[in-house]
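ENTRY TYPE: paired fold submission
RECORD: A
CONTENT: sequence, then structure tokens
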Amino acid sequence: MEQPRLLFCFLREHRMKAVETRILELRAELDEHNYRYHVLDEPSIPDVEYDRLFHELKALEAENPHLVTPDSPTQRVGSAALSAFTQVRHEMPMLSLGNAFEENDMLEFDRRVTEGLDLPAGDLFGAGSKVQYSCEPKLDGLAVSLLYRDGALVRGATRGDGTTGEDISVNVRTVRNIPLKLKGKGWPDVLEVRGEVFMSKAGFERLNASQLEIGGKTFANPRNAAAGSLRQLDSKITANRPLEFCCYGLGQTSAEIADTHIGVLETLKKWGMPVSHELKLANGVEECLDYYRDIGERRLTLSYEIDGVVFKVNNLAAQRELGFRAREPRWAIAHKFPAMEELTELLDVEFQVGRTGAVTPVARLKPVKVAGVMVANATLHNMDEVARLGLMIGDTVIIRRAGDVIPQVVQVVAERRPENARAVQVPQTCPVCGSHVERTQLIKRSKGKETVTEGAVYRCVGRLACGAQLKQAIIHYVSRRAMDIEGLGDKTIEQLVDEKLIGSPADLYKLKYEQIIDLEGFAEISSNKLLKAIAD
């Protein structure tokens, strides 16, 4: 009997070693794929293969819970909810940066740096008497501190007031591109990495869409979404939010890892830390301004939101020489972009009529400059959005402009509501043609069954008798998606309808030369050209 028992023990031990080896292999493989995907932007396997490896590891750990370690990729899913965050004191304060808003502010910053370093000192910077600066986008997110001991992530904390933050360790572990264990070797025993947790524009849109589906809270902008997601007491919620991390420097460390700021970031990247793809070195303040202009032009095309550019003296010895003033470093500055959001007053809500007769609200605002453009109108989408915002005429509101999107009202500042604020009322008759406006409950069909969803659309019943619907119908008819009639623009169509020369798309083919040449902006050649385009 002894021999079979020994054989059984041997086989069991052999199997356990095989399982342990496979678990280590899977963790290493998943860590490598995470690094290639999140840091290098060079994924080497499709998502489906990554998922297969992840689920294999998850199953093995479920069968062998004693082999689960805190740095396993499976531990990003979140844990039990906390009752409150504990306070964390930063060994090295997380200071804010001074701001530059104009080019002259940057020139003044460079002058202070130059004087503080008693330049020329070409041998120090390798660029004559010009200071070398690192340049990187200022991500619009939440600043965090990540503490690693012996290469393992042991704590995550918010910036807080710069001296004391909140321990969000369980939450930062769920952020996919934060390494739970550093790659490679050579890292200090104690390494504090600092950076920004943010949400991409696409991730923000997905999150708000999913929140609307479940009737949850939506967010005004990606920054609020990132901050709200990272500070959830239930880390399982955080784990399901599309958060990302980008490191921008160091805090407390037990040893120096480079002699320049860019050298530090390049080393951190080798250890698995995501750094900005836009990181560059500038020789002198003029190159800093060139960088600012270049990224400013590309700002709206980036996949994430930025609110400026951070410039830092690249040489770390020079940083130490310059030191700090009050609560900000003398060797760094944030050159801010014009704000994408602004406060203004809602003067009125007017209603416009679309091609299908939908009557939609438009905010008329006290004019304000947003991202360099004067804004007086903003979309409100529909009355459901008005209700969601709790919007009243006279309110102080936050408006947002991003990309080519029409400015939109994203939030009401309820505490500033005046006593004479008025509710927004849908007109009973069409503001264009006077026809009746009817309310239609939105219907969602699912698997052959009709289910009424929350929300409704208001429509003018006038159809083509309504000038607004007629104009939009003809604009659609002549567009590239339909008949593609070149030279027949929106303004021309508006003139034709207003002059009662056309009452339907078919009337376009009845137009005469004498009618067109009398229109504003038309002469003999352009009139004949338009008639030919319609005929063709």
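RECORD: B
CONTENT: sequence, then structure tokens
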Amino acid sequence: MKKEVRDPQGLAVEKSLKTLGYDTVKRVRVGKYMEVFFEAGSREEASAKVEEMSRRLLSNPVIEDFSYNLLEPEGEK
């Protein structure tokens, strides 16, 4: 979620953590995590596909930023 967007879920988690005695917690942001498995001919192609998928469907650019990591499935190198 973009920094300037309010995060009511994050604020609720932060308050609860402090209530439980975790006084050193300064801020909590709650977001979403996805794993997308697909085939690509190269890392460059994979990166381009992820960028396109993220911009077209997986994120809401008005309120969300996105980042990604490209990983090779275990046992497939």
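NOTES ON RECORD B: Helices lie at 8-19, 43-58. The two ends are 33 Å apart (CA to CA).
STATUS: closed
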